[in-house]
Amino acid sequence: MKKKRILALDVGNKRIGVAYSDPSGISITPSEIIKNDEKVFEKLKELIDRLNVGTIVIGLPLTLKGLEGEQAEKTKEFAEELKKHFPDIKVEFVDERFTTSLAEKHLKETTKKSKRKQKLDSVAATYILQTYLMKQQFIND
Q: Are strands 90-95 and 28-35 parallel, antiparallel or unpaired?
């Protein structure tokens, strides 16, 4: 049986940044940005099927004090819908504090200014996935 990949989502009100692991969970690839609209679950199904996804990791936007605010509630509601559409896929959360600022810093150093905005959400998703993979490695060691 083919090993499943992990898909990371940086969920925003308008856009969702996407990144995914290789089947071994070692490398991470930033993917496209999906519009968070009425077709979002259709687009996610295409990705899940094409990439053979077994787990989805969603960045949970906590406040600086580590509390859940309005955006965290919206993200959790999105996750509940995701679970209804894909009941066989494990859905987990990762604290996403600072992932956008890390992504912005990375893009500032590596990408032309005109291309940064279109890549920001998917690069933030790579940081979400990196956090998850490191946590899994720590747990399994």
A: unpaired
Do the Cβ atoms of 25 and 6 come closer than 8 Å?
A: yes
User: Cα separations (Å) of 100 from 18, 46, 104, 127?
Assistant: 13, 26, 6, 8
E strand or H helix at 5, and its extent? strand 5-11
Tell me the CATH architecture of domain 5-136. Answer: 2-Layer Sandwich (3.30)
Contact yes or no for 2/69 (Cβ under 8 A): no
- Average confidence (pLDDT) over 123-139: 82
What confidence tens digit (pLDDT) does each residue in 45-62 have? 999 999 999 999 999 987
Half-sphere exposure of 3 (CA within 13 A, CB side): 8
* Cβ atoms within 10 Å of 62's Cβ, excluding its own: 17
**What whole-number distance in Å separates Cα of residue 99 and Cα of residue 85?**
27
* Residue 39 scores a pLDDT above 80: yes
Q: Where are the domains of the chain?
A: 5-136
Reported as type and span, the H/E element at residue 94 is strand 90-95
